[in-house]
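Table S2 (text version). Query chain:
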Amino acid sequence: MPLILCPECNNKISDRAEFCPHCGLPAKHFGTSVKQDNTAADTNTLPDLSTLRNVLISFDQSYQSLFGTNHYITARELSGLKASFSIWVEQLSERTAYGYCSENAPKFSIDMETVNRSLRRYETLNQDTENHNTLYIDYIVEQNKSYFDNLLKDIDPNIKLDDEQRRAVAAGDDYCLLVAGAGAGKTTTMATKVKYLVEKKHIPPEEIIVISYTNKAIDELKERINKKLHIPARICTFHSFAYDIVRKFSETPPEVNYSAYNIIFEMLEKEIFHNKKLLRKVLLFLGYYFDLPAGVMDYDNLNEFHLAKAAQDYETLKSGAGEYVNKVATQRGRTMKTLTGEYLRSVQETQIASFLYLNGLDYEYEPVYPRPIMGAKKKYTPDFIIRQGEHTAYLEHFAISESNYSSILTREEIAKYSNAIKSKIELHRLMGTTLLKTWARV
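Corresponding C-alpha coordinate output:
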Protein backbone atom coordinates (compact mmCIF):
# COMPACT_ATOMS: atom_id res chain seq x y z
CA MET A 1 0.00 0.00 0.00
CA PRO A 2 1.78 3.19 -1.21
CA LEU A 3 2.03 6.15 1.11
CA ILE A 4 1.56 9.78 0.15
CA LEU A 5 2.11 13.06 1.96
CA CYS A 6 -0.92 15.11 2.97
CA PRO A 7 -0.53 18.56 1.34
CA GLU A 8 -2.11 20.20 4.40
CA CYS A 9 -0.26 18.71 7.38
CA ASN A 10 2.61 16.94 5.58
CA ASN A 11 1.99 13.66 7.41
CA LYS A 12 2.19 10.27 5.70
CA ILE A 13 -1.15 8.71 4.78
CA SER A 14 -2.47 5.90 2.57
CA ASP A 15 -3.18 6.82 -1.05
CA ARG A 16 -6.59 5.11 -0.63
CA ALA A 17 -7.64 7.10 2.44
CA GLU A 18 -10.96 9.01 2.08
CA PHE A 19 -9.56 11.77 4.26
CA CYS A 20 -6.37 12.57 6.16
CA PRO A 21 -6.58 10.96 9.62
CA HIS A 22 -4.32 13.71 11.02
CA CYS A 23 -5.99 16.93 9.81
CA GLY A 24 -9.23 15.69 8.21
CA LEU A 25 -8.50 16.96 4.68
CA PRO A 26 -10.86 15.18 2.20
CA ALA A 27 -9.25 12.95 -0.41
CA LYS A 28 -10.50 15.11 -3.29
CA HIS A 29 -8.02 17.79 -2.17
CA PHE A 30 -5.05 15.45 -2.25
CA GLY A 31 -4.60 16.28 -5.93
CA THR A 32 -2.15 14.87 -8.40
CA SER A 33 0.71 17.00 -7.08
CA VAL A 34 0.99 14.86 -3.99
CA LYS A 35 4.14 12.76 -4.15
CA GLN A 36 4.15 9.12 -3.28
CA ASP A 37 6.39 7.95 -0.48
CA ASN A 38 7.93 4.97 -2.25
CA THR A 39 10.92 4.69 0.09
CA ALA A 40 10.98 5.19 3.84
CA ALA A 41 14.44 6.70 3.57
CA ASP A 42 13.20 9.61 1.43
CA THR A 43 10.33 10.61 3.73
CA ASN A 44 12.43 10.24 6.86
CA THR A 45 14.81 12.92 5.60
CA LEU A 46 12.08 15.47 4.87
CA PRO A 47 12.14 18.26 7.46
CA ASP A 48 9.17 19.58 9.41
CA LEU A 49 8.94 23.08 7.97
CA SER A 50 6.34 24.33 10.43
CA THR A 51 9.01 25.80 12.75
CA LEU A 52 11.64 26.88 10.22
CA ARG A 53 10.26 30.40 9.72
CA ASN A 54 10.52 31.23 13.42
CA VAL A 55 14.00 29.69 13.59
CA LEU A 56 15.16 31.86 10.69
CA ILE A 57 13.80 35.00 12.35
CA SER A 58 15.49 34.14 15.65
CA PHE A 59 18.82 33.30 13.99
CA ASP A 60 18.80 36.53 11.97
CA GLN A 61 18.01 38.67 15.01
CA SER A 62 20.74 37.00 17.11
CA TYR A 63 23.23 37.38 14.27
CA GLN A 64 22.45 41.09 13.87
CA SER A 65 22.68 41.58 17.62
CA LEU A 66 26.16 40.04 17.79
CA PHE A 67 27.69 41.45 14.62
CA GLY A 68 25.79 44.70 14.34
CA THR A 69 27.11 46.37 17.48
CA ASN A 70 30.46 47.33 18.97
CA HIS A 71 30.61 44.09 20.88
CA TYR A 72 33.14 41.31 21.51
CA ILE A 73 31.58 37.97 20.55
CA THR A 74 32.49 35.40 23.20
CA ALA A 75 32.92 31.69 22.61
CA ARG A 76 29.74 31.08 24.60
CA GLU A 77 27.71 33.47 22.45
CA LEU A 78 29.08 31.96 19.25
CA SER A 79 28.28 28.45 20.47
CA GLY A 80 24.72 29.48 21.33
CA LEU A 81 24.19 31.07 17.91
CA LYS A 82 25.46 27.97 16.12
CA ALA A 83 23.37 25.65 18.27
CA SER A 84 20.18 27.56 17.39
CA PHE A 85 20.57 26.73 13.68
CA SER A 86 22.83 23.66 13.51
CA ILE A 87 20.00 21.11 13.20
CA TRP A 88 18.55 22.93 10.20
CA VAL A 89 21.97 23.24 8.57
CA GLU A 90 22.40 19.49 8.89
CA GLN A 91 18.93 18.76 7.46
CA LEU A 92 19.09 21.24 4.59
CA SER A 93 22.49 19.96 3.54
CA GLU A 94 20.61 17.00 2.05
CA ARG A 95 19.56 17.75 -1.53
CA THR A 96 16.16 16.10 -1.12
CA ALA A 97 15.38 18.06 2.04
CA TYR A 98 16.52 21.35 0.51
CA GLY A 99 14.40 20.70 -2.59
CA TYR A 100 11.40 19.88 -0.47
CA CYS A 101 11.92 23.09 1.52
CA SER A 102 12.20 25.16 -1.67
CA GLU A 103 9.09 23.59 -3.18
CA ASN A 104 6.96 24.05 -0.05
CA ALA A 105 8.36 27.41 1.10
CA PRO A 106 5.30 29.48 0.04
CA LYS A 107 2.94 27.24 1.96
CA PHE A 108 4.91 27.77 5.21
CA SER A 109 5.64 31.47 4.56
CA ILE A 110 9.35 30.75 4.25
CA ASP A 111 11.59 33.14 2.33
CA MET A 112 14.21 31.04 0.50
CA GLU A 113 16.47 34.09 0.18
CA THR A 114 16.55 34.24 3.98
CA VAL A 115 17.21 30.49 4.10
CA ASN A 116 20.18 30.78 1.73
CA ARG A 117 21.57 33.84 3.51
CA SER A 118 21.37 32.08 6.88
CA LEU A 119 23.10 28.99 5.50
CA ARG A 120 25.92 31.13 4.09
CA ARG A 121 26.31 32.98 7.37
CA TYR A 122 26.46 29.73 9.30
CA GLU A 123 29.22 28.38 7.05
CA THR A 124 31.49 31.37 7.74
CA LEU A 125 30.54 32.01 11.39
CA ASN A 126 33.91 31.07 12.88
CA GLN A 127 35.96 33.19 10.48
CA ASP A 128 33.50 36.09 10.62
CA THR A 129 33.62 36.04 14.43
CA GLU A 130 37.42 36.04 14.44
CA ASN A 131 37.53 38.97 12.02
CA HIS A 132 34.90 40.88 13.99
CA ASN A 133 36.72 40.37 17.30
CA THR A 134 40.07 41.40 15.79
CA LEU A 135 38.57 44.67 14.59
CA TYR A 136 36.88 45.18 17.96
CA ILE A 137 40.15 44.72 19.89
CA ASP A 138 41.95 47.04 17.45
CA TYR A 139 39.31 49.66 18.14
CA ILE A 140 39.45 49.27 21.94
CA VAL A 141 43.27 49.42 22.02
CA GLU A 142 43.32 52.51 19.81
CA GLN A 143 40.52 54.30 21.66
CA ASN A 144 42.14 53.63 25.04
CA LYS A 145 45.75 54.28 24.09
CA SER A 146 46.24 56.93 26.76
CA TYR A 147 44.59 54.71 29.36
CA PHE A 148 46.88 51.76 28.57
CA ASP A 149 49.94 54.03 28.47
CA ASN A 150 49.31 55.17 32.04
CA LEU A 151 47.60 52.08 33.44
CA LEU A 152 50.50 51.11 35.69
CA LYS A 153 51.99 54.55 36.14
CA ASP A 154 51.20 54.62 39.87
CA ILE A 155 53.05 51.33 40.38
CA ASP A 156 56.04 51.88 38.13
CA PRO A 157 56.28 54.60 35.45
CA ASN A 158 58.78 52.45 33.56
CA ILE A 159 56.29 49.63 32.94
CA LYS A 160 54.77 49.95 29.48
CA LEU A 161 52.40 47.36 28.07
CA ASP A 162 53.32 46.14 24.61
CA ASP A 163 50.71 45.61 21.87
CA GLU A 164 50.17 41.91 22.65
CA GLN A 165 49.61 42.65 26.33
CA ARG A 166 47.10 45.38 25.51
CA ARG A 167 45.20 43.09 23.17
CA ALA A 168 45.13 40.35 25.82
CA VAL A 169 43.71 42.80 28.35
CA ALA A 170 41.07 44.06 25.91
CA ALA A 171 39.95 40.57 24.84
CA GLY A 172 36.57 39.87 26.38
CA ASP A 173 36.27 36.15 25.74
CA ASP A 174 35.24 33.46 28.21
CA TYR A 175 38.82 32.18 28.11
CA CYS A 176 42.07 33.55 26.75
CA LEU A 177 45.31 31.59 26.46
CA LEU A 178 48.54 33.53 26.94
CA VAL A 179 51.68 31.75 25.78
CA ALA A 180 54.91 33.43 26.89
CA GLY A 181 58.24 32.56 28.39
CA ALA A 182 59.53 33.38 31.85
CA GLY A 183 59.83 37.09 32.50
CA ALA A 184 57.70 38.03 29.50
CA GLY A 185 55.16 39.87 31.63
CA LYS A 186 52.35 37.37 32.28
CA THR A 187 51.92 38.51 35.89
CA THR A 188 51.83 42.14 34.81
CA THR A 189 49.22 41.30 32.19
CA MET A 190 47.03 39.53 34.75
CA ALA A 191 47.24 42.44 37.17
CA THR A 192 46.40 44.88 34.38
CA LYS A 193 43.47 42.71 33.30
CA VAL A 194 41.97 42.92 36.77
CA LYS A 195 42.34 46.71 36.83
CA TYR A 196 40.78 46.95 33.35
CA LEU A 197 37.80 44.80 34.37
CA VAL A 198 37.14 46.92 37.42
CA GLU A 199 37.63 50.34 35.85
CA LYS A 200 36.38 49.83 32.29
CA LYS A 201 33.95 46.93 32.56
CA HIS A 202 32.70 47.91 36.03
CA ILE A 203 33.09 44.40 37.43
CA PRO A 204 32.91 44.42 41.26
CA PRO A 205 36.27 43.28 42.73
CA GLU A 206 34.50 40.72 44.94
CA GLU A 207 33.33 38.94 41.76
CA ILE A 208 36.90 38.47 40.54
CA ILE A 209 39.02 35.46 41.52
CA VAL A 210 42.66 35.24 40.44
CA ILE A 211 44.02 31.69 40.68
CA SER A 212 47.59 30.53 40.13
CA TYR A 213 49.68 27.44 40.80
CA THR A 214 52.36 28.50 43.25
CA ASN A 215 52.48 30.55 46.43
CA LYS A 216 55.28 32.62 44.92
CA ALA A 217 53.07 33.66 42.00
CA ILE A 218 50.21 34.37 44.39
CA ASP A 219 52.41 36.62 46.53
CA GLU A 220 53.45 38.58 43.43
CA LEU A 221 49.84 38.98 42.31
CA LYS A 222 48.72 40.07 45.78
CA GLU A 223 51.53 42.59 45.92
CA ARG A 224 50.51 44.16 42.62
CA ILE A 225 46.72 43.81 42.67
CA ASN A 226 45.77 44.07 46.34
CA LYS A 227 48.49 46.34 47.66
CA LYS A 228 49.70 48.50 44.78
CA LEU A 229 46.50 48.72 42.71
CA HIS A 230 44.30 48.68 45.84
CA ILE A 231 41.85 46.23 44.28
CA PRO A 232 40.48 43.75 46.89
CA ALA A 233 40.03 40.86 44.44
CA ARG A 234 40.50 37.38 45.82
CA ILE A 235 43.84 35.81 44.89
CA CYS A 236 44.63 32.18 45.77
CA THR A 237 46.14 28.93 44.59
CA PHE A 238 44.14 26.13 43.00
CA HIS A 239 44.52 24.13 46.21
CA SER A 240 43.23 26.96 48.37
CA PHE A 241 40.30 27.58 46.04
CA ALA A 242 39.30 23.91 46.06
CA TYR A 243 39.85 23.74 49.81
CA ASP A 244 37.38 26.58 50.43
CA ILE A 245 34.77 24.87 48.27
CA VAL A 246 35.10 21.70 50.35
CA ARG A 247 34.86 23.71 53.57
CA LYS A 248 31.46 25.10 52.49
CA PHE A 249 29.99 21.63 52.85
CA SER A 250 31.80 20.54 56.02
CA GLU A 251 32.63 22.24 59.30
CA THR A 252 35.59 19.90 59.76
CA PRO A 253 38.66 20.99 57.77
CA PRO A 254 39.59 18.42 55.12
CA GLU A 255 42.67 16.34 55.77
CA VAL A 256 45.43 16.14 53.19
CA ASN A 257 46.18 12.54 52.29
CA TYR A 258 49.94 12.46 51.92
CA SER A 259 49.83 8.73 51.11
CA ALA A 260 47.93 9.50 47.90
CA TYR A 261 51.27 9.38 46.12
CA ASN A 262 51.40 5.68 46.92
CA ILE A 263 48.41 5.12 44.63
CA ILE A 264 50.38 6.63 41.74
CA PHE A 265 53.50 4.67 42.62
CA GLU A 266 51.54 1.42 42.74
CA MET A 267 50.01 2.10 39.35
CA LEU A 268 53.40 2.93 37.86
CA GLU A 269 54.92 -0.21 39.32
CA LYS A 270 52.21 -2.52 38.00
CA GLU A 271 51.61 -0.97 34.59
CA ILE A 272 54.78 0.79 33.52
CA PHE A 273 57.92 -0.45 35.31
CA HIS A 274 58.61 -3.33 32.92
CA ASN A 275 57.04 -1.97 29.74
CA LYS A 276 59.91 -0.04 28.18
CA LYS A 277 57.87 1.20 25.20
CA LEU A 278 55.15 2.62 27.44
CA LEU A 279 57.75 3.86 29.91
CA ARG A 280 59.45 5.88 27.21
CA LYS A 281 56.17 7.49 26.16
CA VAL A 282 55.33 8.42 29.75
CA LEU A 283 58.74 9.95 30.40
CA LEU A 284 58.68 11.90 27.17
CA PHE A 285 55.21 13.20 28.05
CA LEU A 286 56.24 14.18 31.57
CA GLY A 287 59.35 15.75 30.13
CA TYR A 288 57.23 18.61 28.87
CA TYR A 289 56.18 19.42 32.42
CA PHE A 290 59.04 18.33 34.67
CA ASP A 291 62.78 18.82 34.63
CA LEU A 292 64.02 15.30 33.94
CA PRO A 293 67.74 14.74 34.61
CA ALA A 294 70.14 14.01 31.80
CA GLY A 295 70.50 10.32 31.00
CA VAL A 296 67.04 9.35 32.23
CA MET A 297 66.46 7.31 29.07
CA ASP A 298 69.61 5.26 29.74
CA TYR A 299 67.70 3.04 32.19
CA ASP A 300 66.01 -0.15 30.96
CA ASN A 301 62.85 0.49 32.96
CA LEU A 302 61.30 2.87 35.45
CA ASN A 303 62.26 0.64 38.37
CA GLU A 304 65.98 1.12 37.66
CA PHE A 305 65.52 4.87 37.37
CA HIS A 306 63.45 4.95 40.59
CA LEU A 307 66.11 3.05 42.53
CA ALA A 308 68.83 5.38 41.31
CA LYS A 309 66.72 8.43 42.09
CA ALA A 310 65.79 7.14 45.54
CA ALA A 311 69.46 6.79 46.39
CA GLN A 312 69.79 10.55 45.97
CA ASP A 313 66.76 11.46 48.11
CA TYR A 314 66.87 12.24 51.82
CA GLU A 315 65.81 9.00 53.44
CA THR A 316 65.54 8.39 57.14
CA LEU A 317 67.22 5.46 58.85
CA LYS A 318 63.73 4.36 59.88
CA SER A 319 62.79 4.03 56.23
CA GLY A 320 65.99 2.36 55.09
CA ALA A 321 66.12 -0.10 57.97
CA GLY A 322 62.38 -0.63 58.11
CA GLU A 323 62.21 -3.91 56.22
CA TYR A 324 65.13 -5.41 58.19
CA VAL A 325 63.75 -4.26 61.56
CA ASN A 326 60.34 -5.68 60.74
CA LYS A 327 61.90 -9.02 59.75
CA VAL A 328 63.93 -9.24 62.98
CA ALA A 329 60.93 -8.28 65.08
CA THR A 330 58.84 -11.02 63.49
CA GLN A 331 61.57 -13.60 64.11
CA ARG A 332 61.65 -12.63 67.79
CA GLY A 333 57.91 -13.14 68.06
CA ARG A 334 57.07 -9.52 68.79
CA THR A 335 54.12 -7.76 67.19
CA MET A 336 55.14 -4.47 65.55
CA LYS A 337 53.47 -2.11 63.13
CA THR A 338 54.64 -2.60 59.55
CA LEU A 339 57.26 0.02 58.72
CA THR A 340 56.96 1.78 55.35
CA GLY A 341 59.14 4.12 53.34
CA GLU A 342 59.24 7.64 54.70
CA TYR A 343 60.44 10.77 52.91
CA LEU A 344 60.68 14.05 54.77
CA ARG A 345 60.63 17.64 53.64
CA SER A 346 64.15 18.75 54.60
CA VAL A 347 67.60 17.49 55.52
CA GLN A 348 67.30 18.68 59.12
CA GLU A 349 63.93 17.00 59.60
CA THR A 350 65.53 13.81 58.28
CA GLN A 351 68.30 14.15 60.87
CA ILE A 352 65.72 14.61 63.62
CA ALA A 353 63.78 11.53 62.51
CA SER A 354 66.96 9.46 62.39
CA PHE A 355 67.93 10.63 65.90
CA LEU A 356 64.50 9.67 67.28
CA TYR A 357 64.67 6.25 65.64
CA LEU A 358 68.21 5.45 66.79
CA ASN A 359 67.26 6.37 70.35
CA GLY A 360 64.23 4.10 70.39
CA LEU A 361 61.62 6.85 70.43
CA ASP A 362 58.30 6.03 68.80
CA TYR A 363 57.28 8.87 66.52
CA GLU A 364 54.94 9.77 63.67
CA TYR A 365 55.67 12.33 60.99
CA GLU A 366 53.18 15.16 60.41
CA PRO A 367 50.22 13.77 62.40
CA VAL A 368 46.92 15.61 62.48
CA TYR A 369 46.59 17.57 65.72
CA PRO A 370 43.64 15.96 67.56
CA ARG A 371 42.31 19.07 69.33
CA PRO A 372 39.67 21.21 67.53
CA ILE A 373 40.91 24.66 66.54
CA MET A 374 38.22 27.31 66.13
CA GLY A 375 38.34 29.20 62.85
CA ALA A 376 41.12 27.08 61.37
CA LYS A 377 41.10 26.94 57.57
CA LYS A 378 42.94 23.64 57.50
CA LYS A 379 44.02 20.91 59.88
CA TYR A 380 47.15 21.57 61.89
CA THR A 381 49.91 18.99 61.37
CA PRO A 382 52.96 19.38 63.67
CA ASP A 383 56.23 18.03 62.32
CA PHE A 384 56.39 15.09 64.74
CA ILE A 385 54.46 13.46 67.55
CA ILE A 386 56.60 11.49 70.01
CA ARG A 387 55.08 8.84 72.25
CA GLN A 388 56.89 7.27 75.19
CA GLY A 389 54.63 5.10 77.31
CA GLU A 390 51.71 7.24 78.44
CA HIS A 391 53.55 10.44 77.64
CA THR A 392 53.05 12.37 74.41
CA ALA A 393 54.88 15.39 73.04
CA TYR A 394 54.86 17.30 69.79
CA LEU A 395 58.01 18.51 68.08
CA GLU A 396 58.17 21.44 65.67
CA HIS A 397 61.32 22.17 63.69
CA PHE A 398 61.60 25.79 62.59
CA ALA A 399 63.49 26.89 59.48
CA ILE A 400 65.01 29.94 61.17
CA SER A 401 67.43 30.30 64.06
CA GLU A 402 66.22 30.92 67.59
CA SER A 403 67.35 34.53 67.16
CA ASN A 404 65.10 34.89 64.11
CA TYR A 405 67.83 34.73 61.48
CA SER A 406 67.82 33.04 58.08
CA SER A 407 70.23 33.29 55.18
CA ILE A 408 67.60 32.39 52.58
CA LEU A 409 64.44 34.20 53.73
CA THR A 410 63.71 37.89 53.28
CA ARG A 411 63.03 40.17 56.24
CA GLU A 412 59.29 40.13 55.45
CA GLU A 413 59.27 36.33 55.19
CA ILE A 414 61.09 35.98 58.51
CA ALA A 415 58.56 38.28 60.20
CA LYS A 416 55.66 36.28 58.81
CA TYR A 417 57.31 32.99 59.79
CA SER A 418 58.07 34.27 63.28
CA ASN A 419 54.40 35.18 63.81
CA ALA A 420 53.41 31.65 62.76
CA ILE A 421 55.86 30.22 65.31
CA LYS A 422 54.35 32.35 68.08
CA SER A 423 50.85 31.17 67.10
CA LYS A 424 51.87 27.51 67.32
CA ILE A 425 53.53 27.99 70.70
CA GLU A 426 50.46 29.78 72.01
CA LEU A 427 48.16 27.05 70.64
CA HIS A 428 49.98 24.30 72.54
CA ARG A 429 49.95 26.41 75.70
CA LEU A 430 46.19 26.93 75.49
CA MET A 431 45.52 23.28 74.68
CA GLY A 432 47.82 22.01 77.40
CA THR A 433 49.93 19.89 75.04
CA THR A 434 53.70 19.60 75.26
CA LEU A 435 55.67 21.25 72.45
CA LEU A 436 59.36 20.62 71.83
CA LYS A 437 61.13 23.11 69.59
CA THR A 438 64.21 22.76 67.39
CA TRP A 439 65.73 25.55 65.35
CA ALA A 440 67.67 25.74 62.10
CA ARG A 441 71.46 25.82 62.19
CA VAL A 442 72.83 28.94 60.47
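Notes on Table S2: The radius of gyration is 35 Å. The longest strand covers residues 391-398.
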